[in-house]
Structure formats: structure tokens, C-alpha cells
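Hi there, hope your week has been kind to you so far. Please have a think about how the structure follows from the sequence. I've dropped the whole record in just underneath, so have a look:

_____
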Amino acid sequence: MKKIFYIGIDDTDILEGPGTGKIARGVASRLEELGLGRHRGVIRHQLLVDPRIPYTSHNSAKCVLFETSYSAESLSQPCIDYLAEHFQPGSDPGLCICEPEQFNQELEDYGTSAQKEYLSKQQAYRLAQKLGVFLVELGGTGDGVIGALAAVSLSAGGNDGRYVHLRGIKEVNGLITAGLVKEKTDTVCIIDDEGQVVPDSALIDSLGWLRPSRIKGEPRLRVRLEKDGEGKEIWRPIERKLRAHSGK
């Protein structure tokens, strides 16, 4: 029976190297290449920015959604091997793999806390051990386990973060209708800033950069009606202002 596993990754990068987002996409691709299943996207989750927390740029963690009939044990070693090959020296990587049935209120609260409070590695390990969640540090201080556990929590909760990788979104460019966005990508629906569904005929200026939000456990693209240079109304993605920092 297939189910979605949550694979959290954090603190694999340094300023001069490839970001954690790129490495998370690589993990998703590697698992697919091995015939273990199919990825359902990579989600970026913003965590607490605090002087006590070392981070590369904006302290975000990533979560790979992976659909498979295999066990967490079958996924863990390929993930470890890929991260060992690609994480940057000087980083403090952590890896977490969570099954849907392991997600509960306590884990959800941990993810929310990681966005508001300073958490310790010991707190992460205690909770992971209690719930039977796979959590491992792979180098440096290993503090990446804090964010890795938070990433699976926030993704499993279903209402946080944005997709930095989703099948088809990087091939979308220029003007496109809402219906074609759904047809060409794994985006489930297009909604406005009040949460109302935009009709399939609505014309969207993709700006060459679509990043759906995770809402109710699904990738939903949020758009806003604006005016172009000629004063004509057109829909544009709401998630676009952080573009310069979102490659991780």
C-alpha cells in the first residue's frame, strides 16, 4: 500500500555552495531513479530567525513528499548516501523521515514552536524517539536535526510553506490560463487572496516563477488580480517577492 512519507532536510549548505533546496530536489530525484516511488514535491518552511541559531541565509528547512510502498528503512540509506555526497563541509546537516501515522498533535506543536521559539537538538531527539520517527545528524554539530524534524511536522500539518519543487512548475513561463497551470503541473487549484477558486479561463502572468502554497495538504497557487503596464487586469502570483532567496 502506497503512502506519503515526509523527508525533512536542514542545514546542508554554506553561503558559497548549493542551497538545501537543490539538495532536497536531488534527494527526490535519487529516490525516483532507484525505483522507490514518486515525489510529490519539495516544500520550504520558514523557521525562527534568531541570533542564537546559526543559519546560512533565512533559516528555512525543506521537506520532500515521497509516495512509496516501501518502508522508512528502505528510504533512509539512499537519503543518507545522497546527503553524504552533497552536503557542504562546514554545514550541520540533519535528516528526518516520518510516516503519516506518526504525525500527532505533539509533533504538530513542535513544528509550530520551531517557528516561534529557540529549540535544542535534545528536544528534537526526545520527541523523535518517543514517536519512533527516524532522525539522524550527518555532520558538524548536527543541529540540522532540529529543522529537519520541524519540516516534517509543518508539511504533515498541511497548512504551511510553499513548494519550491513541484512536477511541471519550472516549465511554466509567460502568460498561461489557470486551467493550463493545473493541466501542466501538479497544482491542485488556483485561488485568490481571499481563498476563492479562480476560473480555469483566468489569465495568469506566471512571471516565470510559480511557487504554490501548501494549503489543506495540497499545492494551491495563490494569485492576485493586478494591472499590467497598459492598465489591463491580469492575475499574478502572490508568492513572488522572496524570489531572490528561494532557491534553497
